[in-house]
Amino acid sequence: MKFTLSWLKTHLETDVSVDDIAAKLTAVGLEVEEVRRPGDELAPFTVAYVVEARQHPNADKLRLCTVDTGTEQVEVVCGAPNAHTGMKGVFAPPGTTIPGTGVALKKAKIRGVESCGMLCSEREMGLSDEHEGIIELDPDAPVGAPFAEVMGLDDPLFDIAITPNRADCLGVYGIARDLAAAGLGRLKSADIEPVPGTFTSPIDVILDFPGDGPSPCPLFLGRYIRDVRNCESPRWLKDRLSSVGLRPISALVDLTNYLTIDRNRPVHVFDAGKVKGDIWLRLGQVGATFAALNGKEYVLDDAMTGIGDESGVISLAGVMGGEPTGCTMETTDVFIEIALFDPVRTAATGRTFNLESDARYRFERGVDPAFAGPGMELMTRLVMELCGGEASEVVVAGAEPAWRREIAFRPSRVKALGGVDCERSDSLGILTALGFACKEQEGGMVSVAPPPWRGDILGEADLVEEVLRIAGFDQIPAVSLSPTAAERARPALSPTRRRLGAVRRSLTARGMFEAVTWSFMPRQHAVLFGDAPDALVLANPINAELDAMRPSILPNLIEACRRNADRGFADAALFETGPVYSGTAPDEQRTVVAGVRAAAAVPRNWHGPERPVDPFDAKADALAALSAAGVSLGSLQTRTEGPAWYHPGRVGTLGLGRNVLATFGELHPGVLAELGAEGPMVGFEVMIDALPRPKAKATRAKPSLAASDYPAAERDFAFILDGGVPASEVERAARNAEKALIKAVTVFDVYAGPGIEADKKSLAITVRLEAQDRTLTDPEIDAAAAKIVANVAKMTGGVLRG
Amino acid sequence: MEDLHALEERMLAGIEAAGDLPALEQARVAALGKKSPLSQAMKGLGGLDIEARKEAGVRLNQIKRKLADAVDVRRAALERAALDQRLATERVDVTLPTRPEAEGTVHPISQVLDELIAILADMGFRVVEGPDIEDDFHNFTALNIPPEHPARQMHDTFYFGADEAGERMLLRTHTSPVQIRHMQAEPPPHRIIAPGRTYRCDYDMTHTPMFHQIEGLVIDESTHMGHLKGCLIDLARAFFEVEDLPVRFRPSYFPFTEPSAEMDIGCSREGGGLRIGHGADWMEILGCGMVHPRVLEIVGLDPARYQGFAFGIGVERPAMLKYGIPDLRSFFDADLRWLRHYGFAPFDVPTLAAGLSA
User: A546 at the B interface (CB within 8 A)?
Assistant: First the structure.
């Protein structure tokens, strides 16, 4: 919402500074986005008198002017054909920046003669496109005076953001009322003297709506004014509209804009000569076409309110008037419309057509239901003032909707809810100044009736806000929050969030970079990583590429690795912690940690050659993540299977029983190719929600340490196995052979090749044996070794290598 | 028999002269071996009378100990010299690089979330979470935003297709629905924060279709707007680590709070750059207000008894302001150069004890 200081002052008697007004506007909730002071920008430009304009000695088209600037006489070279002796113009001294061109002016020799400044055209001053000649000011303009002041261009312009609840401040008068209530001046009387009608309007208005639901138009006031003479608006009106960026058109049109901005009261004026018969308002004008004032045609649907005559729809209620019945300079009779339209319907109509207008903007936020009548009188008066004519009686269709209500207000709530010690009388004083009617009730209660322009005030909390914002939010004392003892005793983080924090920092310490990528991805990527059901496809994606909620984070990370490779960084290690989706229900969103490593795990270096990423990098990442999340790795089982987006022979699943905690492996070359990415890449996914919950423990104390004081023994074994036997089974068989004594089993060699039968492999393990209460004797160790060999043979078919 | 003193001097000289360990062994055998003059003299003690034997024994033992000590000293010296010589041949060029090791970084969004959580946890807030895919009720209606409310149009909501009943799920436009879910699920009092992903259908220099917010909610029987102010001023000053950070609260409008406010912090835009702190300008950082009585009613709380405040703060923008990150869109690009530059070391866990960004 834009308005100038002078416009504001037509409603507010005040002498406070622009800065103070701006500060107060923001303080009461009318946030100032910008204050433009054209006077400051134009300050160097002054009124100058051309003492003499003569021919430039060296150029036919140039003149040499002796200019009196008020402080001195200077010589100026000027190319304008209208520069002449005795005129007054706008002088720019050297050093100023010309607003229209952005060029800094310098003293310069033009065709051999020095020019000490410039006489400016309207275009150079940024006022218009006019560049035929220089500006010729009124002969009475005082020489040396600031040009902006003389031209009335120094009016500060406020641009404020109006929140959707403050429709009343979409009019300058409403803004003045808020400022007056906040102590910034006195609100001028806005009484409007009615204009008596002298005849019955030849046009009647029929509201033709079905009886149920909120009326699309509860009230429509019409008035016929005959024998008007449309004309160019007077200077004050043109200046006022121009100052807020509206283009003056003609008096009748300009007045509708003026009432809209000045009073938040949209008005429409029909050229009555072009209206055929009476005016009706109806829904259900399905298929009716309407030629709007913006030159476009619209086809109405069932839900829109059409305003029509015998010829059809001539106006779209609350949104835009029609071209054929619009006013022109030839208009002699007009029919003024001041109506109330249903905000919801108006908004929906505007949205359907993507049609913005000042009227729609106001109707959808709500206009003052009690101002239709006074608004009509004001419009009538202004039309007759500018265009003459004779007014009919007012045609009234419908009735003013009920808006009166009372709210029980306890002034003590200002303190209890707002925290401010505001005197009761001060609170009620603020409300009264804002137009609320306050009636004392028993028990300290006050019955408060909001004014008709404050449709947003519905409850006591709203009244507290009114008092607080006018008193100033800076009056609210700041009280720090401290936790209660109970709040201190328990953690702020959920177990999941705590785990994610540990996982994040653990993976980062392992050399991975944390990324955050979109929760959505191209559907053709999603289908490669599970499912992309229709339910998870966005109806209005930001672009066609990002249309499906992600079933996995991996594709986004693969894409990111590809982008990094394109930038010359192929060795990427990225992970993300975040949501994946299998449906739209809350429990179909799961938290996952996923990571991808691409190209080289270890770069070429003087200690050794480059090592490409392999599945064990991803397995290590997954195990590190699980460990950081508090999962005991000892009980995990590794299965040689996993989802289809991994290499079928290089994929694993980490789980507890059937519960899959993580998958890892080399990413399937076919999938990478579909994503346009180059391998090798390995990845993992840890299903955070599937991890066993940490057990609730009775004590924080750890169990006592059971470290043996006796030496441990280590024995190595090498087994010949079928090639397909997983190493983990050998480990498990060995470990389970003598649980009491075996503390650790570690694979230290795997071999297949010469010396070993085809389809067989040799697997070597080292076993650490230890007793709690004694040094193990050789016979004991030998007995344990025999059990290990026997159990490995039994469980895996492995035989001790000779 | 040789004079004992002379013998001692001779043997000591032999030990001292040993140039390497084998020579020293020879000298040791010569001085202390079974066939050495000293051993011979020891053997000859038996033939002396008791007094003479005692006297001679003491003297011989003194010499023996002295020679043995001399051997030890010489051995240590020779070993040290041998070691020095070996080490001299084992020199490596320590200017060579180490074996490759890698350390990654924590994303600024995670770090800033951790910072904000650290501050708010210290005020007694507990972290709760809710789903990204929401229904209309939790995202709008329960927050006092009826279907045709103009505020709803401002949210640029992502929708999914309609189901059989015509209901459309959506991507939450703010973290406020978590308030609703929490109040529906748990009895008051409430003091929670809800961090998470939020979505709006908007993509330009200053908007991304996905971004992060932290929602805060305090509900009890006495919390008023002074607590809101105190909490958020403390939050802003702790987060930006500027003790006297200028702050102001402006009346604003949100359908789910009444009164509503926006909070600005002081900043300076002098010289083109943006600096947080004292300056001529203000910058909005969050929206807040007292929870609307209608919202309390919707979740089944009696607004005559319960009251409190809510706030919503973005994560990316405070991160950009605090850490001088210029482009919002770069947060989601996973550019390794950006992650390395703007990310945080794994063990930079923000705590109030250590200082958030110390």
Answer: yes
pLDDT-derived band at B153 (thresholds 50, 70, 90) equals low
Judged by CB atoms closer than 8 Å, whether chains meet at B349 and A488 is answered as: no
Of B123, B197, B293, the CB nearest to A482: B123
Contact A698, A762 (CB under 8 A): no
Phi, psi (5° rounding) for residue A266?
-60, 140
Of A461, A473, A603, the CB nearest to B293: A461
Closest chain A residue by Cα to residue B219: A417
Instruction: Kindly determine whether residue A492 and residue B203, on different chains, have CB atoms separated by under 8 Å.
Output: no
Q: Do β-strands A46-55 and A63-68 pair in parallel, antiparallel, or remain unpaired?
A: antiparallel
Answer whether the bond into residue B189 is a cis peptide, omega within 30°: yes
Whole-number Å distance between alpha carbons of B118 and A493: 10
Least Cα distance to A237 among A260, A254, A262 occurs for: A254
User: Which residues on chain B are in Cβ contact (under 8 Å) with A473?
Assistant: 229, 248-251, 261
DSSP-assigned letters across all residues of B280-338: SEEEEEEEEEEEPHHHHHHTT--TTT-EEEEEEEESHHHHHHHHT---GGGGGS--HHH
pLDDT digits (tens, 9 = 90+) for A396-408: 999 999 999 999 9
pTM value is 0.88
Return the residue in A24, A364, A516 with the most chain B beta carbons within 10 A, the one to mutate for interface testing. A516
- Determine whether the interchain pair B227/A507 forms a contact, defined as Cβ–Cβ distance below 8 Å: no
- Look at the block and give the residue holding tokens 């895919």: B133
Q: Could you read off the pLDDT of A522-550 as tens digits, one per residue?
A: 999 999 998 889 999 999 998 888 999 99
DSSP annotation string for A607-633 = TB--EE--HHHHHHHHHHHHHHTT--G
**CA B73 to centroid of chain Cα atoms:** 53
Residues in B closer than 8 angstroms to A571, CB to CB, are none
Residue of chain A minimizing CA distance to B171: A538
In 3D space, the residue among B179, B175, B186, B257 whose CA is nearest the CA of residue B217 turns out to be B179
Instruction: Please answer whether residues B353 and B119 qualify as being in contact, where contact means their C-beta atoms are separated by less than 8 angstroms.
Output: no
Residue A537 is given by DSSP the state: B
A 385-444 → B contacts, CB under 8 A = 415-420
Element holding A393 (H helix, E strand): none
Residues shown for chain A? 802
Question: How far is the C-alpha of A786 from the C-alpha of A799, rounded, in Å?
Answer: 12
Residue among B107, B133, B169 whose CB faces A515 most closely = B107
pLDDT tens for each residue of B178-193: 999 999 999 999 999 9
Share the mean pLDDT of chain A. 93
Q: Give A679's Cβ-side CA count (13 Å radius).
A: 18
CB-nearest partner of B343 from A163, A468, A514: A514
Closest CB to A589 among B114, B132, B339: B132
Can you tell me the distance from the alpha carbon of A602 to that of A24, in angstroms, rounded to the nearest whole number?
63
Minimum CA–CA partner of B259 in chain A: A465
Overall size of chain B counted in residues: 358
With vertex at residue A192, the alpha carbon angle to CA A186 and CA A197, rounded to the nearest 5 degrees, is: 175
Longest dimension (CA), chain A: 128
Nearest to A602 among B100, B168, B249 (CB): B100
Q: Which of residues 324-343 of A touch B (CB under 8 A)?
A: 343
Distance CA B32, CA B40 (A): 10
Contact across the interface for B110 and A504, Cβ inside 8 Å: yes
Residue of A nearest to B192 (CA): A492
- Rounded to an integer, what distance in angstroms lies between the CA atom of residue A153 and that of residue A176? 22
Instruction: Give yes or no for a contact between B234 and B123, defined as CB atoms under 8 angstroms apart.
Output: yes
**Per-residue pLDDT, A128:** 72
Secondary structure class of B305 (helix, strand, coil): coil
Task: Answer yes or no: is the ipTM higher than 0.95.
Answer: no
CA distances to A445, A470, B315 from A451, rounded to whole Å, are 19, 16, 40
The yes-or-no verdict on residue A432 having pLDDT over 80 is yes
